Amino acid sequence: MQRNMAHTKPHFLHVGPGRTGTSWLYGMLSQHPDVYLNPVKEVRYFSEACDYPGEGLLGRFRKGDWHNQNYRSYLKKRLRSYLKHPLTAVGSSDRLAWDLRYLFGRRSDDWFEGLFRCEVSKVTGDFSPQTQHIPPAEVFYISQEWPATKVLLTLRDPIEWGWSCARMWLIPDRDPREVSDAEFRDFVEKFTPDFPTVARISLWETAFAGRFKLLFFDDIAADPAKALNDVCDFLDLATGPIAGFDVSRRRYSSRPLAIPRRFRRILIELYENEVRQLAEKYGTYPRRWLERYGGGG
User: Fold this and answer.
1) How far apart are alpha carbons 47 and 217 in whole angstroms?
2) 178-207 pLDDT per residue, tens
3) Please, which residues have CB within 8 angstroms of residue 140's CB and are 6 or more apart in sequence?
4) What is the dihedral of CA 159, 160, 163, 165, to 10 degrees?
5) What is the distance between the alpha carbons of residues 170 and 66, in angstroms, rounded to a whole number?
6) Is the CB of residue 71 less than 8 Å from the CB of residue 61?
7) Pairwise CA distance, residues 11 & 126, whole Å
8) Which of 255, 251, 271, 249 is nearest to 170 (CA)?
9) Phi, psi of 18, rounded to the nearest 5 degrees
10) Residue 65 has what pLDDT?
């Protein structure tokens, strides 16, 4: 049967930072029969257009920046897959076409929309944490160019978030006692711009008025089934299909490790004022965060 296929503007953008349940949500929504998500979770179109303007094909594969390394790694991975199973490339022409477009296509709005070629009945979306901190003018541009697109942003206690980032990238296999305070502070300060401030959240809320949803990681941790149900409601997706999902499944979890007090003090110093502002605007959860580290008075 001929499928009704088309390119489409994404129905939603998830712009929350990593380590806030984004991989879990991507994994859950990718199982929904009415959803199409790209095989690469983080396409990063908007942020790379701002951070690396005019970067061409050669630059994408020759430069040493982390995002260029990601492209090279993905190319090698897909080549190995196709060489190991050559019939896959023939039998999966849609995936091959997607890989070629993603890796070698000239970046533009049309290029980005072309990545969402699927059945017209599908809800499509993009998960790119870096999109959260693009310039305000670009946020309003996206809102105006794609007036039906919705935005999801996930927020987590920054103390837990900062420690989760450190466990993932600074000390995945190290003993925390080997990490000095200076090294830890330097690491978390590099990540500080990635945490959504009140001003940044308000920008997205304003630009996407009526099309914006703030998610709290606390809700995902406490009741993942309800959190997923709420997201489906926001995206106008049927909730029936998610009843059988294993919502307790976690992706890319770090090893359990309690945060040392000295690192906790550094994180509180960096984020307490911001959490106070979040508590004034969003109430319950940010207030609980403050209370957990003695700043709720």
Assistant:
1) 23
2) 999 999 999 999 999 999 999 999 999 999
3) 207
4) -110
5) 16
6) yes
7) 9
8) 255
9) -65, 170
10) 84
Instruction: Report yes or no: 272 and 140 within 8 Å, Cβ to Cβ.
Output: no
Tell me how far apart the alpha carbons of residues 140 and 56 are, in angstroms, rounded to a whole number: 25
User: What pLDDT, in 10s, does the model give residues 134-154?
Assistant: 999 999 999 999 999 999 999
- Residue 90: is its pLDDT beyond 80? no
Average pLDDT over residues 262-279: 96
Say which residue the tokens 């999801």 belong to: 152
Q: How far apart are the first and last CA of the chain?
A: 64
β-pair partners for 215: 154
CB-based contact 270:192 (threshold 8 Å): yes
Pairing of strands 5-6, 118-119: antiparallel
Give residue 265's region: left, alpha or beta (phi > 0; psi -120 to 50): alpha
Bridge partners for 195 per DSSP: none
**Domains with residue ranges and CATH for the chain:** 5-55+107-156+196-253 (3.40.50.300)
Strands 35-37 and 150-155: unpaired
| Residue 58 vs residues 47, 68, 105, 266: alpha-carbon distances, Å | 19, 10, 12, 41
The H-assigned helical ranges of the chain are 22-30, 45-51, 57-62, 66-84, 86-91, 93-104, 109-114, 136-145, 158-165, 181-191, 198-207, 217-222, 224-234, 261-282, 284-292
Q: Kindly report the number of other CB atoms within 10 A of residue 283's CB atom.
A: 10
DSSP 194: G
Full-prediction pTM beyond 0.90?
A: yes
Rounded CA separation 58/283 (Å): 48
Helix (H, G, I), strand (E, B) or coil at 62: helix
Query: 234: which 2 tokens?
Result: 């926001």
Amino acid at 254: S
| Cα→Cα distances 55→45, 51, 107, 108, 146, Å | 12, 10, 9, 12, 24
